[in-house]
Design goal:
346 residues; UDP N-Acetylglucosamine Acyltransferase, domain 1; ten-stranded parallel beta sheet; 18% helix
Length: 346
């Protein structure tokens, strides 16, 4: 569906520099843009490429001007980029109703506007809110609840008594509420500790593909509102994740660790169990955290230390070969000097 430059600017609280009636039919990066496309530029390099591309208009912030292209000036080009994409690429609409192949327990309460796709299984006492989508092959265990406008992608498993807020998105292959890894050593064997808690997920959480979120051993495992979790992340039992956190791919969080709000964990970060991370902690990729971190701390390395300290250590390590060479040279000179000054035998 085409939009005029003026219509897009209105949606983004921006202004048009050039022909406001210009029709725009799509959005593309500068190197792939065609006539009729809108592209974006958040710095001078991007803008130079966008201005020489085939795109008809450019989303910009700052004081860019152009004699070649229509510009739509916005407060922040990257935020505008995120807002404008759904105009040109709207999400698929799923019709209300229950597919004939779905298996729905008699006691389940399903809003009439919800979509239950093919081969889904909905257990006893499940509550599914308005406009919820189970795309296909999904399992929702007994006693679970899914808030309004939640979208569950194909082949997701949600164990019993899980509680999902509104506008939650969970991608394919993810398992919510599997047993936590809890055992005690008893008479030469590992005895399983029953995991009888559940998982609570706040509003506006998005969870990527092939993520596992374990149920609590007794109480809940909790994910706060607005948190985004990338693919292939493991969240262990009784973990508490605050609001608006970011967990990047292959993160592993051990049991009973508690995170504040706006925490960022880079790719392949590992957190030991029973830790406390304050608000706005940032952990760099591939770091291993072994101790509590206060609010605002930025750490790097294994074991993780404050990032400035870690960077100094990395620089020092890079200087070691030259330092070793210089020490050996000094030792050689000292040894040679000692030989020259040593008393001569008669």
């Amino acid at each position: 569906m085409p939009f005029t430059a003026a219509e897009i600017a209105s949606q983004l609280q921006g202004e048009v520099l050039g022909e406001a009636s210009l029709a725009l039919t799509g959005f593309a990066p500068a190197d792939r843009a065609q006539p009729g496309d809108l592209t974006f530029a958040e710095n001078e390099d991007y803008f130079a490429r966008a201005e020489t591309s085939a795109a008809s208009a450019i989303l910009v912030d700052g004081n860019f001007t152009s004699q070649k292209k229509v510009l739509i000036r916005v407060p922040n080009a990257r935020i505008a980029f995120a807002k404008v994409l759904p105009l040109f690429f709207p999400e698929p609409v799923f019709p209300a109703g229950i597919h004939p192949t779905a298996v729905v327990a008699p006691s389940a309460q399903i809003d009439p506007t919800a979509h239950i796709g093919p081969h889904c299984i909905v257990g006893e006492q499940v509550r599914i809110g308005a406009r919820v989508v189970l795309q296909g092959g999904d399992f929702v265990g007994p006693g679970s609840s899914l808030g309004d406008d939640t979208n569950i992608f194909p082949n997701v498993t949600i164990y019993s008594r899980s509680q999902l807020g509104q506008r939650v998105r969970i991608h394919s292959g993810t398992v919510i509420g599997s047993d936590g890894f809890g055992y005690v050593f008893d008479q030469g064997a590992h005895r399983k500790v029953p995991q009888i808690g559940n998982v609570i997920i706040g509003d506006d959480v998005e969870i990527g593909a092939n993520v596992t979120v374990d149920r609590g051993a007794l109480g809940p495992t909790t994910i706060g509102k607005g948190t985004k979790i990338d693919n292939l992340v493991q969240v262990a039992h009784n973990v508490t994740i605050g609001d608006h956190c970011l967990l990047v791919s292959q993160v592993g969080v051990a049991g009973s660790t508690r995170m504040g709000n706006y925490v960022i964990l880079g790719g392949q970060v590992g957190l030991a169990g029973h830790l406390k991370l304050g608000d706005r902690v940032t952990v760099a990729a591939q770091s291993g955290v072994m101790h509590d971190l206060p609010a605002g701390e930025k750490v790097l390395g294994t074991p993780a230390v404050p990032d400035r300290q870690a960077k100094r250590q990395l620089i020092a390590i890079q200087q070691l070969p030259e330092l070793i060479r210089r020490v050996r040279e000094l030792e050689r000179k000292l040894s040679s000097g000692a030989g020259e000054n040593a008393p001569k035998k008669e």
